[in-house]
Amino acid sequence: MWKFTVRRIILMIPQVIFLSLLIFIMAKVMPGDALTGLIDPNIDPAAIEARREAMGLNNPWYIQYMDWIKGVIQFDFGQSFRYKMAVSELISERLVNTFWLSVVTLFFTYLLAIPLGITSGRFNDTWGDRLITGYTYVGFAAPLFIFALVMLWLFGFKLGWFPTGGSVTPGLVPGTFEYILSKLNHLLLPSLSMALITTVSTVQYLRSEIIDTKQKEFVLTARAKGAPESRVYNRHILRNSLLPIAAFFGFEITGLIGGAIFIENIFGYPGMGQLFLTSITMRDFSVVTALALLFGIASILGALLSDIILSLVDPRIRIK
Amino acid sequence: MGKSSLKKLLFTLMLILLLALAACSGGGEEEQVDEGETEDDGLYSIEDFSKMKTNEGEAIEGGSFTYGLVSDTAFEGTLNSNFNSGGPDARVIGWFDEALLTWDENFVYTQDGAATYEVSEDGKTFTFTIRNGVNWHDGEPVTAEDWLFAHEVIGHPDYDGIRYGSDFTNIEGMEAYHAGEVDTISGIEVIDEKTLEITYIKATPSLVTGSIWTYPLAKHIFGEMEVAEMSSSDAVRRHPIGFGAFKVESIVPGESVVYSKNEDYWRGEPNLDEVVLKVINPNVVVQSLQTGEVDTVDAFPVNQFPDNADMSNVEFLGMVDRSYNYIGFKLGTWEDEEVVPDPEAKMADVNLRKAMWHAVDNETVGERFYHGLRWNGTTLIPPSHPEFHDETNPGITYNPERAKELLEEAGFVDVTGDGMREDKDGNELVINFASMSGDDIAEPLTQYYIQAWKQVGLNVQLLDGRLQEFNTFYDRVEEDDPGIDIYQAAWQAGIDVDPTDLYGRNAMFNYTRYASEENDRLLATGVSEEAFDVAKRQEIYKEWQQLMVDEVPLFPTLYRAAVVPVNNRVLNYSIGDGTEMYLHEIAVTSESPLVAE
Amino acid sequence: MRMNNANTPRSMQEIEKSPSGWKIVIREIIKDKLAFVSLIFLILVILFVYGVALFLDQAEIVTVDLFAIHEPPSSEYWLGTDYGGRDIFGQLIIGTRNSLSVGILVTLLSGIIGITVGVISGYFGGTVDNIFMRIVDFFMILPFLMIVIVFVAIVPKYGILSFSLIMTAFLWMGIARLIRSKALQEQELDYVHASKTLGSSNFQIVFSQVLPNLSSLIIVTMTLNLAANIGLESGLSFLGFGFPESTPSLGTLVSYARNPQTLEHRWWIWLPASLLILVLMLSINNVGQALKRATDARQRRG
């Protein structure tokens, strides 16, 4: 087990290095830089050029890369050109928002997936199962952005049940109960929109997993022994079906990253996805590179997590 | 099995139906709006708007006011005028800090601000006196020392902001100080605690229209800091300080700011207890205003105005914006800090440029796309500068027939018979047009111009077949990318009318790279000593505006209006410059904003 | 039927099935009414869209008409017009065609690359496999959306082909992995050994034996990928990192809904495109799922 984990972690290192190189070069190739946007007749162009020189934007790329990577190792991603603050500080502000968005989304995802999947699997081919399967069909096909847009329009605008932007009502003191409540309120619609879509694959998986397990010999044996149906489900089937779901947890994180870009963009939720899109348009390289790197590492870790859980569940994986 | 798929199909159908129904109900409302609109041809004119809010009702004691900052990005949070560079930050700063000098509607400094000024005979030496009672939020007085300190920081070699420029180099001794040769700026002298004297190298009428640095920097707070660290310090980012009507209470970075009133404000105690500023996405502006989530916003998206002109709980204020859209012709290159015109440039023929101006109908563009809230541009000094904008100059008017004539005369004839004109030598003429994305209407507007030019037989192609993203666009325009023959962009005129920074021979922002001796002469006299006489200056700029119409290095396409909705409960609110209404006077008539019916 | 297949050893089943793979697929689809209807619908849409698009002039459809801005649906403009006075119906047709083209192109390209890499990797195994899989691993961890967005910001000029290539570059790994694992299994089977002893070249074995055995799996995966790719294209266009407006796409039409005025008052601009995406994806998925059932005995319905 340990050997496997260590091996996986060592494999990660070149991945991360390649990732950082790729991201950095791509960011440099992008036309324009952080100062291009400062077009204002009241600003002296010479002042802009001087800033450019001072920030090292005129150095060759590999020197800039070495400078950058040296900082990254010490968790210093440099300064954001636009926000005039340390990238790490900027990101940590947004990271909190995205983190909670992900947590609440995951919560809803499993809150929906487990009962729906179980119902659907246990009572397969009843009308309830058909309804749930119907939902998963539509959910599987509906692109997240369209669904989120409709949710925003319906619950945010038409019905006015939820706030339509931001992460918290201004003026509340951090730490107070109202503040937390307001944060949660701002989270509900975005995370629910995302969860309703992301949950379907888990529901589908759980359903077929349960249907499969139902036919397995040990279940049939348990049943033949006269164990009550609920016990058969709780003790035997569920335990066996939920483990693989747990293993998907890591991959779920990767999915959330992509989703966050859409969701934060549509709901005006100030998280990392939104920061990424604005940084791209504003050519704030240090932020773009840091975010891409972070997201990349997050998906690496997600995959690692899944592999580890999987290897716990299914020892055969370890041989690989 | 059949049954289950049927169920699925049914479910899908139901979902679709639900969507369609919901959408149709939305459509229904629209028709009602349309009816209201057709009665008055759906057009608006900026002249029907006021810059001042009409006051209705009695003010209540105190109250809270919410200001919406319309932006799809977070504000940057560099909350000090000496360091900030973004427009959104400036709005955040505006509530808690102000300039020491105020200006009138012609952007000329007045004697009503926190400081007054006197000018010497030769117009070079300014003596400023800061009023008594002008105090920083922490109670310390604002001193001449602070004002000097701001100059010292901006001129410092380690300064990381963008303010240092020609306004500063025009101060005596500034360049020596900036180069690190001396420790003090010889042209600035602190006379006493409240009096400062600044000597400029060159006297120009521009000095009193925005070329003086009027934002002091609190020395008792920043004095001990390294210059390079100031902009990222807590005193700029977390607990910014000023001497305005309100002080910063709390900040949610990038999202919102809560201000409380500054009881010690030098003009008097503000009426409001609290001001909340929050960023709202352009997409939810209407919603936020209707529900009273915000009392007003800094800018209302003009294209959303017609659908919401009847909003019952707000009054729309409006003014002429300093911005204008224009189409520029690339006529040369930028070499060694100087514009070098290229007589061989594709667009070098003035008749070709005139014909292209004749070919586009900006009147209709303004009416159709902007419902009259943007309108045909005529000269390069926009009507936001009423003193200098030449109303009598019609520019070049829409006249496609004249455009064709001009082209024929100039030798741009269709030789090949494909409906498109060839150049004077009979070679294929393809004009590459760069345009940027960002504006809501950018894409159809660009397409319209291309179509209009096609109508007169000019083959204009969109560069790369798509709109350029903002950064790429300016990168390529700035570097005189040979692929660009013409481009569409916008300028915001400075508060000083002098256009040298945009159109002078040594201006990098002169993107058309047009230069002529007549242009040099007019621009120079516009800021010379004889121009201190306003009538004379008007004369000069009138001549210059005509020169630009004759030469057409670029032509203005649309002038713009800014409309700002303000909740009906708000009193003493105004937009624009020189209204002599100040933030401390704002009051409200009820505890919470009125909600739309 | 179901019991039979379930009890047949996998290898046997596939060998036996390979010649009649298509037959089973077709039979299964006809049996599943929903999938059948979906397939017919898809074929009709594709024929309609590509057919009608032949008669439509894209340049004319994206022509701005100042006097027809935001027209509601009428006999002249079947689905109204957008904020440039451009006909939505025409844009919808052309947009569907463009989105489908990108989806199909990306699916085919990524399929070809993925299958090639997967088969080579799985069939030869060893060092080749190791190298390929490290590369695949690396691509797998890239945050897809972000990388593509950055790429789109870099490439100055793009059309259907270059946009498809950008997407393909980061989408071929899934299918490569899948094919590899199957090829790994195949390669150990008797028939491959037999062919080898008979002196067939690797190339021959791969093309005439291994690949045909994987064909049904490939078809299923590619069908499901097609839906996903169409979704990705429209998603990117929605964010503003896809096609420019002068090249209509379903995502662009939906993205107009980000203006709340359009979302609330002008449903004809965004709703048809949204529904079309939804229905297209549903149909493709239905067909894909039916295909999957056809190849996966366990899931097949009785």
Report on this structure.
The complex is a heterotrimer of chains A (320), B (597) and C (302). Chain A is mainly α. Chain A folds into two domains: 20-86, no CATH class; 89-317, MetI-like fold, CATH 1.10.3720.10. Chain A has twelve helices and no strands. Chain A is globular and about 85 Å long. Chain A starts with a helix and ends with a helix. The model of chain A has no long low-confidence stretch (mean pLDDT 79). Chain B is of the alpha+beta class. Helices cover 29% and strands 19% of the residues of chain B. Chain B is built from 18 helices and 19 strands. A six-stranded mixed beta sheet of chain B has the order 13-17-10-16-14-15, sandwiched between helices. The longest helix of chain B has 38 residues, at 2-39. Mean pLDDT of chain B is 86; it is low at 1-39. In chain C, helix 6 packs parallel to helix 9 (160-169) and helix 6 packs parallel to helix 10 (173-187). Chain C is elongated. The relative contact order of chain C is 0.15. Classes of the chains: A mainly alpha (320), B alpha+beta (597), C mainly alpha (302). Chains A and B meet through helix 2, helix 5, helix 6 and helix 10 of A and helix 1, strand 7, strand 8 and helix 15 of B.
| Greatest interface (CB-CB under 8 A), with counts per chain | A-B, 56 and 65 residues
In total, how many domains does the architecture of chain A comprise?
A: 2
The CATH level-2 architecture of the largest domain in chain A is identified as Orthogonal Bundle
Kindly estimate the percentage of residues of chain C that lie in beta strands according to DSSP. Answer: under 5%
CATH superfamily caption of the largest domain in chain A: MetI-like
Point out poorly predicted stretches of chain C: 1-19, 298-302
* Oligomeric state: heterotrimer
The value of Rg of chain A in angstroms is 24 Å
The CATH topology of the largest domain in chain A turns out to be MetI-like fold
- Helix and strand string of chain C, N-terminal first? HHHHHHHHHHHHHHH
Count all strands of chain A and give the number: 0
SSE arrangement of chain A, N to C: HHHHHHHHHHHH
Question: Helix count of chain C, per DSSP?
Answer: 15
Which sheet architecture does the biggest sheet of chain A show? Answer: none
Helices and strands, with pairings:
The complex is a heterotrimer of chains A (320), B (597) and C (302).
Chain A: H1 2-29, H2 45-54, H3 61-73, H4 87-122, H5 127-141, H6 144-158, H7 177-214, H8 217-224, H9 229-267, H10 272-282, H11 285-313, H12 316-319
Helix pairs in contact in A: 1-11, 4-5, 4-7, 4-9, 5-7, 6-7, 6-9, 7-9, 8-9, 9-10, 9-11, 10-11
Chain B: H1 2-39, E1 64-70, H2 87-94, E2 115-119, E3 125-130, H3 144-155, H4 166-169, H5 174-178, E4 188-192, E5 195-199, H6 219-222, H7 227-230, H8 234-237, E6 246-252, E7 256-261, E8 274-280, H9 285-290, E9 296-297, H10 305-308, E10 314-329, E11 332-335, E12 338-341, H11 350-359, H12 362-370, E13 374-376, H13 400-410, E14 430-435, H14 442-455, E15 459-462, H15 470-478, E16 486-492, H16 500-503, H17 517-526, H18 534-551, E17 554-567, E18 570-571, E19 587-588
Parallel strand pairs in B: 1-8, 1-9, 14-15, 14-16
Antiparallel strand pairs in B: 2-3, 3-5, 4-5, 6-7, 7-8, 10-16, 10-17, 11-12, 13-17, 18-19
Helix pairs in contact in B: 11-13, 17-18
Chain C: H1 2-7, H2 10-17, H3 21-31, H4 33-55, H5 58-61, H6 88-124, H7 126-141, H8 144-154, H9 160-169, H10 173-187, H11 190-197, H12 202-239, H13 250-255, H14 260-265, H15 267-295
Helix pairs in contact in C: 3-15, 4-6, 4-15, 6-7, 6-9, 6-10, 6-12, 7-10, 10-12, 12-15
